[in-house]
What does this fold into?
Amino acid sequence: MDPKTLQTPLEQVIIFTDELATQGGWHGEQLKLAFAARGVSSTFASLRDCLLDFSGLKPVIRIPQCEGVPQAAFVRGIAGGSMQQVTTRLNVLHLLKRLGTFVYNDAHAIERTVDKAMTSFLLLQAGIPTPPTWVCESRQHAHQTIQQHLKTHAQMVIKPLFGSQGQGVRLLHQQTPWPLPMDNFVDGVFYLQTFVEATHDYRVFVMNHQAKVAMRRTGEHWLHNVALGAKCERIIDADVLNIATQAAIALDMAYCGVDVIRNKAGELQVLEVNSIPAWRGLQSVCEINIAELLVDDLLRQLNDTTD
It folds into this structure.
């Protein structure tokens, strides 16, 4: 799409990143090139460098190297931090949207996926198959759940409530020390899930409720994240694409990466939905320029909002 055909032509986009020193790294470079190919300049900024100014007659959000309220913002990364810091960074996105900025993905979408408990709830509520999951703060409840589950299953999984790329994910069985609230990556909340044993899983890129491209990820061990060295192979599987699309619709995502797995019974289940997905592994196995797909989708959705 030509950005000049918009009712208000798009000349500049803000790309929020948690890799400001490298201008968003590889993904930032891909987006910058894709926007430039559409005649749109990109400015990189970190949400933690923004200022919420409520001292005047109207609220103002000051973004480094940006004059006024941007017409569009692409969220490529949000730096971690304390609850107060993360809340403030998400508030920047919330308030930008209220001031008229088209935010891709917006803060509500990010909140629905960055919290795995909320993702699990919304998937189950929508009737989308997902592994049985338990979430609690109580060590007593968590250990009772683990003990009961391991009576009929060899293993189960504990994951950080907030986290990605397989960090902090570990298997639990009768011989392993059971997790404690102060353990690294537990941080006071137990997110426990049935372990789905499989030789591989799938990552599907969904934009505007349409599955665009998918790959099979095969790890050396039981985790299949690209960041942990999994091998990638592009696939076209209608059932995998369909369940990923259903998940994106249930969570109302502008775009997302959906992780799908097939259990031993041959049933597909959605493991996670990522609102700020990496796509370097996926790009390595397909000819489609994913950054250009994202940019064109942003422009289309921006056009829809200005009609």
About this structure: The chain has eight helices and 15 strands. The chain has a mean pLDDT of 91.
